[in-house]
Task: structure prediction
Amino acid sequence: VQLVESGGGSVQAGGSLRLSCAVSRYGYCRNDMSWYRQAPGEGREFVSGFDSDGTTTYADSVKGRFAISQGYAKNTVYLQMSSLKPEDTAMYYCRTITCGRLYWGQGTQVTVS
Result:
């Protein structure tokens, strides 16, 4: 399983970006996909994901500004980020638990100035 992320970049405060993450291989196992981020000098933190019933979940710091969604085949996850703030600057990582194993993407940089 490989995760391919895209959509990062530099944007001014108040702007928007959309991140995408695709699982390269999928089959009968469900992909439990989520987004994390890591700012310089900080630990990796949860940003958004899905509960077991499919309900979206968000870190308090991004509620109302970010929206997570999945593609129809459930092998792609998106993160629509709006009203971006400088404190959202971080490397954003896609994560999936597939067939009981944890996989991370390579990360995509988001910089808000």
About this structure: The mean pLDDT is 92. The chain is about 0% helix and 55% strand. Residues 87 and 111 are 9 Å apart (CA to CA). The longest strand covers residues 90-98.
